Amino acid sequence: MMGRQGVVSMAGLLVLFALASTRTTMATDYTVGDSMGWTGPPNITEGFYNDWAAGKTFEGGDSLKFVWNGSHNVAIVSKEDYENCTKVSSYFIGGSAFTYTLPSNASGMYYFICTVDSHCEGGQKLAINVTSSEPSTTDDGSSAPLLAIGALSSAVLPAGVLLLHLLN
Ligand SMILES: *[C@@H]1O[C@H](CO)[C@@H](O)[C@H](O)[C@H]1NC(C)=O
Ligand SMILES: *[C@@H]1O[C@H](CO)[C@@H](O)[C@H](O)[C@H]1NC(C)=O
Ligand SMILES: *[C@@H]1O[C@H](CO)[C@@H](O)[C@H](O)[C@H]1NC(C)=O
Ligand SMILES: *[C@@H]1O[C@H](CO)[C@@H](O)[C@H](O)[C@H]1NC(C)=O
Ligand SMILES: *[C@@H]1O[C@H](CO)[C@@H](O)[C@H](O)[C@H]1NC(C)=O
Ligand SMILES: [Cu+2]
What we know:
Helix content: 25-40%
Shape: globular
CATH class: Mainly Beta
Largest sheet: 4 strands, mixed
InterPro entries: Cupredoxin, Phytocyanin-like, Phytocyanin_dom
CATH superfamily: Cupredoxins -  blue copper proteins
Transmembrane segments: 146-167
Organism: Punica granatum (Pomegranate)
Strand content: 15-25%
Strand order of the largest sheet: 2-7-6-4
Signal peptide: 1-27
Bound molecules: 2-acetamido-2-deoxy-beta-D-glucopyranose, copper (II) ion
CATH topology: Immunoglobulin-like
CATH architecture: Sandwich
Keywords: Disulfide bond, Glycoprotein, Membrane, Signal, Transmembrane, Transmembrane helix
Number of helices: 5
Order of helices and strands: HEHEEEHEEEHH
């Protein structure tokens, strides 16, 4: 016969599985600028990439794929460097694509610019607001298994809550 400890740790495992699958199914791969790719004037105007980002939700684990033709790069910069279009010395170049995966614990603003010529000034810059991907704040149906497990028994709930804290 399974003791209470067994029940609790099994429930913990189920929570872990639910959590893992929730995270996996929720990660979104974005192509920055969609078919326009990562480009500068004259193809785009100021604000183009922030218009692209508007209405999208970015979470830890999501990836941003920058694709381009011609001479461009991707620098991940601070707010000040984003605003000033600072020609920072560290950036990604080579090939014509770069994929950045947001850290799983990412939250807050992330800034990307191209430091070639005056592309940044012309609008080749992107600012995104990353919301943390805590399972309790998921807005689609994928967190349903978690809720179902929580409802199984009130004894199970504290174990699940504890695990969630450990994972955060
Ligand atoms: C790059 O050029 C190729 C060939 O003209 C085109 O098919 C592709 O869409 C372009 N990609 C971007 C990101 O502009
Ligand atoms: C961007 O503009 C250049 C020059 O006008 C053009 O050659 C290139 O194909 C354009 N790229 C895109 C993605 O529209
Ligand atoms: C940004 O540019 C402004 C105006 O040129 C300057 O005063 C400020 O120091 C710059 N900030 C950084 C972090 O470079
Ligand atoms: C994410 O975690 C890493 C190490 O686990 C830490 O260095 C980093 O500061 C964290 N980032 C945020 C935004 O909390
Ligand atoms: C980012 O989004 C969070 C949550 O919606 C909000 O509280 C915060 O003010 C936003 N940050 C910026 C710089 O807009
Ligand atoms: Cu550029």
